[in-house]
């Protein structure tokens, strides 16, 4: 195997191949302009377009109308307490556009008037507070990029391949830049008493969503956020203010945040007892499994992003993340784990955020078994699904970070499969 073949197709080889194809066309007596219908004079080349005031808030091109969040109708009993999924297969880079960030609601989207909204801090504090949004904006603020992943992401895959598309298997995740106030500053203003070891975060939605958070985490890297990617939170993302709990399961990132209560023990509310616990094979439930383990997925090729160009230079890409730090390395395999190749990491690399990886290779048109395997900065390596099941059984829904497999056939179509 030559060095060039080992690393994938070179730029020179790709351009040389393209040049040979063009020369062959010209030798046949026809120019490229005559044979390619795209080389022509189109209406948009001759007509004036819309002015600057036609779309005061910019929208995607109508040709990108298929790039959208999607739901699975049979997954939940109704669309109010439900979820939709980020179209990971249509995206590149690491930042998720605000309009494509997945949604998870327990009582629908709360439409909150920011002028009437209040954030109360009470319980084991020296000085109970009631803050307006204007009050919050006067605290020192910070900007951080973090991923938010639902604990049930990939949950349908515990018992085998279920949903055909990385949007549905892994799309309960997004990655944005949050702007907000460090939670510790708000708690310092109230003065948490020494016996205050836990914090209850409660939302203003009809479900009164609430979670217990260890005070150690609350005073570490949590944010009280009011902007994402530079603009105000979207209503479905908790407008006007939400909690950000970096690296921990998304259910703890309470939206429409209205109350923070300091206490001496966890509250054991619905979302940390009957839900968001991990049921083991013997029927015992693991609780307080907050951290999201290292995970990755190939977004293209994948079931919703097949190979359409035929054999030749091919770009494989995907995402990796860890709730414990960064992702310095991702391995990929084209043959179901017989041989592994180190992918190329690209773009920003910040803790508890999505990382983009690429692997450029020459596809020979034969079937592929694609997998990715993430390594995080603590030394943890993403496990296989069978490894997870050996420890936790098949009763669980949450925290499935097992390696995902796509089978690509000779036509370039991909399917969700499992291999031993």
UniProtKB/TrEMBL annotation:
One of its GO terms (molecular function) is sulfite dehydrogenase activity. Keywords: Metal-binding, Molybdenum, Oxidoreductase. Coiled coil: none annotated. Residues 287-404 form the Moybdenum cofactor oxidoreductase dimerisation domain. Pfam families: Mo-co_dimer (PF03404), Oxidored_molyb (PF00174). Its EC number is 1.8.2.1. Residues 106-267 form the Oxidoreductase molybdopterin-binding domain. It is an enzyme of class 1 (oxidoreductase). Its cofactor is Mo-molybdopterin. It comes from the Bacteria. This is Sulfite dehydrogenase.
């Amino acid at each position: 195997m030559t060095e060039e073949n080992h690393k994938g197709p070179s730029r020179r080889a790709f351009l040389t191949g393209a040049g040979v194809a063009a020369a062959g066309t010209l030798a046949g007596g026809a120019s490229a302009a005559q044979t390619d219908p795209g080389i022509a004079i189109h209406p948009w080349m001759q007509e004036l377009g819309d002015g600057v005031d036609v779309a005061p808030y910019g929208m995607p091109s109508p040709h990108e109308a298929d790039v959208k969040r999607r739901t699975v109708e049979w997954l939940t009993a109704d669309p109010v307490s439900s979820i939709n999924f980020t179209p990971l297969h249509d995206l590149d880079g690491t930042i998720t556009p605000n309009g494509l960030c997945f949604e998870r609601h327990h009582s629908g989207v709360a439409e909150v008037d920011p002028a009437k909204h209040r954030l109360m801090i009470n319980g084991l504090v020296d000085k109970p507070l009631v803050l307006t949004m204007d009050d919050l904006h006067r605290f020192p603020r910070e900007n951080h990029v973090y991923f938010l992943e639902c604990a049930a992401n990939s949950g349908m895959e515990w018992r085998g391949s279920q949903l055909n598309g990385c949007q549905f298997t892994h799309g309960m995740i997004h990655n944005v830049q949050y702007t907000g106030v460090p939670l510790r500053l708000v708690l310092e203003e109230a003065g948490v008493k020494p016996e205050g070891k836990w914090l209850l975060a409660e939302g203003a939605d009809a479900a009164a969503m609430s979670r217990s958070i260890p005070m150690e985490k609350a005073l570490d890297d949590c944010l009280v956020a009011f902007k994402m990617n530079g603009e105000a939170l979207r209503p479905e993302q908790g407008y006007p203010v939400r909690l950000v709990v970096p690296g921990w399961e998304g259910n703890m990132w309470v939206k429409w945040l209205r109350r923070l209560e300091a206490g001496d023990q966890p509250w054991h509310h619905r979302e940390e007892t009957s839900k968001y616990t991990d049921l083991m094979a013997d029927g015992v439930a693991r609780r307080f499994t907050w951290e999201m383990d290292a995970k990755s997925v190939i977004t293209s090729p994948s079931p919703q992003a097949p190979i359409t160009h035929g054999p030749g230079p091919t770009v494989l890409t995907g995402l990796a993340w860890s709730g414990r730090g960064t992702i310095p390395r991702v391995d990929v395999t084209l043959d179901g784990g017989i041989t592994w190749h180190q992918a190329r990491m690209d773009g920003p690399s910040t803790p508890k955020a999505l990382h983009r990886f690429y692997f450029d290779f020459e596809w020979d048109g034969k079937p592929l078994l694609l997998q990715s395997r993430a390594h995080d900065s603590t030394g943890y390596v993403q496990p296989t699904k069978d490894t997870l099941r050996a420890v936790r059984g098949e009763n669980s829904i949450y925290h499935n970070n097992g390696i995902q497999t796509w089978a690509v056939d000779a036509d370039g179509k991909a399917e969700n499969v499992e291999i031993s």
